[in-house]
Design brief:
The complex is a heterodimer of chains A (115) and B (114). In chain A, a hairpin with a 2-residue loop joins strand 10 and strand 11. Chain A is mostly beta strands. In chain A, strands 2, 5, 6, 10, 11 and 12 form a 6-stranded mixed β-sheet that branches. In chain A, strands 3-9-8-7 form a 4-stranded antiparallel β-sheet, with no helix packed on it. In chain A, strands 1-4 form a two-stranded antiparallel ribbon. Chain A is globular. Chain B is built from no helices and 11 strands. In chain B, strand 4 and strand 5 form a beta hairpin. In chain B, strands 2, 4, 5, 6, 9, 10 and 11 form a 7-stranded mixed β-sheet that branches. The termini of chain B are far apart. The chains are: A mainly beta (115), B mainly beta (114). At the A-B interface, strand 5, strand 6, strand 10 and strand 11 of A face strand 5 of B.
Chain lengths: 115, 114
């Protein structure tokens, strides 16, 4: 069975500083990997996804993530954050289990950007 | 235009009542989902339908019954509500159920059971 671990429940950072949100997964088969963002009182929006090919994936709002198969990681990075990036970030993995792709989400990382 | 909409946005009810949440998507997608997000923000899939056929049914009490009258709608009916059902319920949709597709989420329905 697949699982997703987001190592930090909360990451405080100052505006314009770089940030990395960590995500590790476990799965016995090939997976698809996603990062979603949830702003307060809203649904989730896709930031980026890795399906295959280049391990460095670029997404919206200046975010990028790197797939590392040997370390089973998919960390999210941004070189310079803005106040508006304050939100909850979810890493998700999808693999084929019993004939259907079951999406599994991590417990989320709260990114708090201070002025 | 809203892509994935849910009604109601807030739902406050007593234990033991029966309630429904409706979801509609206007993206032309063929796959829809229900998720439960608890007070600690943990998001867990409950059900998924592809072309009106149930394809994912996670370990959810049978008091929860999804219904998909057509590809654009997926409703969630909950019988005999319990305190532990209090959560935010999200509907989502995607094109295809291959697992590679982006999911589009609705704004959520905050259910409070008193």
């Amino acid at each position: 069975a697949q699982s997703v671990t987001q190592l930090d429940s909360q990451v405080p950072v100052f505006e314009e500083a770089p940030v990395e949100l960590r995500c590790n997964y476990s799965s016995s088969v090939s997976v698809y990997l996603f990062w979603y963002v949830q702003y307060p009182n809203q649904g989730l929006q896709l930031l980026l996804k890795y399906l295959s090919g280049s391990t460095l994936v670029k997404g919206i709002n200046g975010f990028e993530a790197e797939f590392n198969k040997s370390q089973t990681s998919f960390h999210l990075r941004k070189p310079s954050v803005h106040i508006s990036d304050t939100a909850e970030y979810f890493c998700a993995v999808s693999d084929r289990a019993g004939g259907s792709y079951i999406p599994t989400f991590g417990r989320g990382t709260s990114l708090i950007v201070h002025p | 235009d809203t892509a994935v909409s849910q009604t109601p946005k807030y739902l406050v009810t007593q234990m033991g009542n029966d309630k429904s949440i409706k979801c509609e998507q206007n993206l032309g997608h063929d796959t829809m989902y229900w998720y439960k997000q608890d007070s600690k923000k943990f998001l867990k899939i409950m059900f998924s339908y592809n072309n009106k056929e149930l394809i994912i049914n996670e370990t959810v009490p049978n008091r929860f019954s999804p219904k998909s009258p057509d590809k654009a709608h997926l409703n969630l009916h909950i019988n005999s509500l319990e305190l532990g059902d209090s959560a935010v319920y999200f509907c989502a949709s995607s094109q295809g159920s291959s697992g590679a597709a982006e999911q589009f989420f609705g704004p959520g329905t905050r259910l409070t059971v008193l």
